[in-house]
Amino acid sequence: MTGFRSVAAAFAASVVLASPAAFAQSGTVKVAWIDPLSGMMAPLGQNMVRSWQYVADLANQQKWAGDVKFEVVPFDNKLSPQESLTALKSIVDQGIRYVVQGNGSGVAIALSDAVAKHNERNPGKEIVFLNYAAIDPSLTNARCNFWHFALDINADMKMEALTSYMAKRPEIKKVYLINQDYAFGHSVEKAAEEYLKRKRPDIQVVGKDRHPLAQVRDFAPYVAKIKAAGADTIITGNWGADLALLVKAAKDAGLSANFYTYYAGTTGVPTAMGAAGVDHVRQVSYWQPNDSVLNPQAIIDGFKKKFNDDYYTMATYTAFKLLSEGMKKAKSTDPLKVAFAMEGLKVQSLNGEVEMRATDHRAQQSVYISSWQKVDGKTVKYDQENTGYGWRTEAKLDSYVASQPTSCQMKRPAAR
């Protein structure tokens, strides 16, 4: 923690001296992407940076923002808050005024705080932070700030939908909770216990585990504990390699328990599931390609052809729609004006209408519960990772149903 504070202090001191950023109302707007491109989560990061760059190209080709074009500039943060703040200093020095990040709520909390402090100390050189996947509820509650915009639904919204679905399944009797040991994982565990107790008090939580983020390479000991506890259901917020390796260990051990997940559609997990996951794995999400309001075929096919990979981070589409419409509404690319313009803005994304709620800057959108099934050409048209299996919608909540209240008391800067 001492190292983190020293890096944060160094960043705060250095940005005061940062050179002014050149900004045009046409031309190219650079968007800095800060997430892992090394370590255990590198495959996930690679998919996501490609998704950002692919949709940026689409926005440019179709002139979503008129004469403004977007360029995504990647920064590898090694999944570290300290590395992220170091990257942010470089971003400031380069005059980049829009930042995106999503992998790890610990990183998002550090970035959100640093961006807010930088903007307060450097009027006229503000930065907007678009958070596309870090979903700790505090980010749009107690820790909310004007410069942070959350494009995903938060952990509590996902758990509300997931447990509402689970409450109607009488076969669920014994649940095991396993999550990554940091802010997001803690919030998933807490919400699961609270919501299950409220909706199905007969369900027994037979075990809980927290493990280090992106460090465990063999989940066999955890799976052994789950089997010993007699769990019929597992709830996990794990993502990336941490979920892929957990699912693989469960399959290798012949564990028959069903998985209820947040991120079973992320890189590596579909391959780990394969046929063994059919009707045994479910996920909660804000979109799934087999039940899309806007036809995603061109994007999915184009992404696959270009990268031989799956497009699943739909928040990238929403982000560039919000930025584009915000810039057109503000008639400017200035971050302060665009931030004000995005408040309350409604855009059409692949999952339908998405509203950036003004009170807390949390995107309000539909929520899906999907199960892993064999491609049938009807309810499951698109597979993942060439497995021949994909997602079928089991339940869908409209945005107003999935919405939750916020405790955010946002302080807004003066407009100019």
What does this structure look like?
The protein has helices at residues 2-15, 42-61, 81-93, 105-121, 155-166, 183-199, 220-229, 241-252, 269-273, 297-307, 315-330, 335-342, 399-402, and strands at 27-35, 68-76, 98-101, 128-131, 148-150, 174-180, 204-211, 233-236, 258-261, 281-285, 346-349, 352-356, 363-364, 367-374, 389-397. The longest helix is centred in the N-terminal third of the chain and has 20 residues, at 42-61. It folds into 2 domains: 2-12 and 27-153 and 296-364, Rossmann fold (3-Layer(aba) Sandwich); 156-285 and 366-402, Response regulator (Rossmann fold, 3-Layer(aba) Sandwich), CATH 3.40.50. It is globular and about 60 Å long. Strand 6, helix 6 and strand 7 (204-211) form a beta-alpha-beta unit. By secondary structure, the protein is α/β, with parallel strands linked by helices.
